[in-house]
Amino acid sequence: MSEATLRARPLALIEDDLVDYEKAMDRMTELVEARQRDDRPDTLWLLSHPQVFTIGKRTLPEHLPDPSRGIPVVSTGRGGQLTYHGPGQLVGYLIVKLRPDEGVVDYVREVELRIVDALGALGLPAERRDTPPGSELLTGVWTRDTRRKIVSIGMRASRGVTSHGFALNVDGDLSPWGYAVACGMPEVQMTSLANELGQAPAAEHVRQVVAAAFGA
């Protein structure tokens, strides 16, 4: 399925550079509450974070990083498991009112498909995956040829409005992913646009392409 087959859902766009994770969570809460009151439109917020590991509701203690690495670990209310944020990564928070006929899992699938389209436009064939019965959730986006994970996704919904979102590895240091068990999958290989393409497109171009994929 391509973006062309998805229902139109234009989003307002907010852009920031490097924002402390906990400060971003406070701002995201404000945006969600405003959307719940219908005081603002559906929104895509693009930004990056300083180095931080974030853990979801299902993260196991043995998946946490060694504290000696010196990277903060923050508990968050989203779905999913452990992920890493750092410079060179594009984070997108999605504050969207769900339609009456969809749940947060439906919207996560839409997010995956839109990011697949964006990566294709950037020259990288990618895919989403269905989760086999009894397996760890395969939420996110993988490269089609090398079968590495390039986008992590974790979301939740409250009073019909989504929060949290996705993290696309553009050109940052990938080594912190090896300090812990990413996404609950010990065998997962993380990658980036720079790693797959030899050189990442300009950061501003990546932002523009991703925003366009979401109608923002």
TrEMBL record:
GO MF, any single term: lipoyl(octanoyl) transferase activity
Gene Ontology CC terms: cytoplasm
Q: Which GO terms describe its biological process?
A: protein lipoylation
Principal localization?
cytoplasm
Listed under catalytic activity are: octanoyl-[ACP] + L-lysyl-[protein] = N(6)-octanoyl-L-lysyl-[protein] + holo-[ACP] + H(+)
Record localization: Cytoplasm
- PROSITE patterns cross-referenced by the UniProt entry: BPL_LPL_CATALYTIC, LIPB
What NCBIfam families does the record tag this protein with?
lipB (TIGR00214), PRK14345.1 (NF010925)
PANTHER family assigned to the protein according to its UniProt record, in alphabetical order: LIPOYLTRANSFERASE 2, MITOCHONDRIAL-RELATED, OCTANOYLTRANSFERASE
| The protein's name | Octanoyltransferase
List the gene name. Answer: lipB
